[in-house]
Amino acid sequence: MTIKEAQNEIIDEFALFDEWMDKYEHIIELGKDLPIIKSEHKTEENLIKGCQSRVWLHADLSNNNILFTADSDAIITKGIIALVIRVFSNHTPKEIAESELFFIDQIGLKEHLSPTRSNGLLAMVKQIKMYSIAFQAKA
Amino acid sequence: METKTNIIDLESIRKDFPILTRKVNGKPLIYFDNGATSQKPQAVIAAIEKYYTLENSNIHRGIHTLSQEATEAYEAARNTVQHFLNAEHSKEIIFTSGTTGSLNLLASSIGKKHINQGDEIIISTMEHHSNIVPWQMLCEEKGAILKVVPINDKGEFLMNEFENLLSDKTKLVSVTHVSNTLGTINPVKEIIAKAHQKGALVIIDGAQAVPHTKVDVRNLDCDFYVFSAHKMLGPTGVGILYGKESLLNDLPPYQGGGDMIKTVTFEKTTYNELPHKFEAGTPNIAGGIGLAAAIDYMNKIGVDKIEAHEHELLSYATKEIKQIEGIRIIGEANNKASVLSFLVDGTHPSDIGMIIDKLGIAIRTGHHCTEPLMDRFDIPGTARASFAFYNTIEEIDTFIHALKRAIKMLL
Question: Complex ipTM, two decimals?
């Protein structure tokens, strides 16, 4: 599945929810289900510090695909992270670098990527792009 | 439970605040983020509008009628602040950009005049970053030492620890009157008296006190008292530095520019008298006028009544929130202003804040610009509901209900 297809799949999934509560409950469930980042990767170096919540992001290159693992101390943030990782993880650096992130806006969670929220999500998305550029340069 | 308080006429007061009629996320707004900034009554909005519509002109320098009117309005605002604080002279009232601006002014001017290598400055654990960082910067510049008074688990200032820190080396004590994160009301009068016995100057950060309680700077005998207009119904971008006349006269100016000078030649500039010495450049004229309108409005209601109603709100909210399982209140001082900081076991404050925002309720979550205080309690942050006199018991009921709903979703 391409990055674009993965995002469209999420948009379809969220189209089922009429109420913000259902949407948030789903995100909270995703947050609870997010595979736990290995504790040795929950380092200060991998920490993206927001004013509201903290996010850890780790990247590994395997067979020219980047595998992301992440965590947050806030569950809603963590749920959105689960979606972002589902979209970007296991793609080549080139695919990630050239991709556009549009699903968050489309599923009505735009405010979570706003710089005013400072929950670390926006910084995490930037960091994902940085990794893709860095891994491309290494290749 | 009696759900109405009869201290103030809430129905009529709420009509004075246009924003309280708006909806957020489809729900009637419940604004419990008053510690960050208060809402503005129509009287303040109208005063600012009137100034720009009919009186706008630069002050202290025009021969024309408009400039004289603007100057009079601005100076009348200064007098209003003087009476509000019970200061002896209006020239002891310096307009600044806010509490942070006032504290930076003091750090600069007191630093130049009074702080030398090895001198000590005392603050407390519960200070806002604005009352930490300027002193850290000054200490670094001068080789002075910053000492911090610890607090107990209830969030109370430890007076005997303070006394132990006080010495002949103490040149300055700068503490908050009311903690923005905990709500603790500090025994500032006692702190001031003890500091004066050692010959230290005392600054009181009143940003969270003036919206809620009567402040009398002469009774307190503080050397300096600082606050912002926007937390007490006034506009943003304007604040006050009160200082005793003799001390202000003694301090060097802060910023150079227009209005703060008597004469300027390329060889030597002589400085203007108080209060203008500390007010370089065109000030926030509309802001000062708006602040005076805010004070007039508060006086009309009565600061004592505001305090009494807010106390009821806090007591009721505290009692109700304690019934929720897993609640931990951060800040349980015996003497508290209307701030309720809390955590819920197994949840993150930002998740709570996000969900109840969807229900139209505005609270603040995070470290509240008091990171060292969060470290003291070993927590990353709190959720904080802070009440103003226009809030109601019914709003607290809705908030408690929303909080329970959020917890149910999150756990």
Answer: 0.86
CB within 8 Å: A119 and B348: no
**Cross-chain residue pair B350–A20, CB shorter than 8 Å:** no
Instruction: Single out the residue in B260, B276, B300 at which a domain terminates.
Output: B300
Task: Tell me: do B270 and B310 sit in the same domain.
Answer: no
Domain extent, residue B391, equals: 10-31+302-410
Closest CA to B66 of B79, B48, B53, B47: B53
Whether B369 is catalytic is yes
Report phi then psi at B264, rounded to 5: -125, 125
Could you tell me if B168 and B314 lie in one domain? no
Q: Tell me the whole-structure pTM to 2 decimals.
A: 0.93
Asked if A52 lies within 8 A of B355 by C-beta distance, the reply is no
Under 8 Å CB pairs connecting chains A and B tally to 38
Interface check for B27 against chain A (CB to CB < 8 A): the answer is: no
Count the Cβ atoms, other than its own, within 10 Å of residue A73. Answer: 18
Over residues B358-388, the pLDDT tens digits come to 999 999 998 889 999 999 999 989 999 999 9
| B74 shares a domain with B137 | yes
Helices and strands of chain A, counted as H and E runs: 6, 3
- Amino acid (1-letter code) at residue B49: E
B310 and B220 belong to one structural domain:
no
pLDDT digits (tens, 9 = 90+) for B83-119: 999 999 999 999 999 999 999 999 999 999 999 999 9
**How many residues in total does chain A contain?**
139
Distance from CA of B288 to the nearest CA of A (A): 28
Q: Cβ separation of B410 and A75 shorter than 8 Å?
A: yes
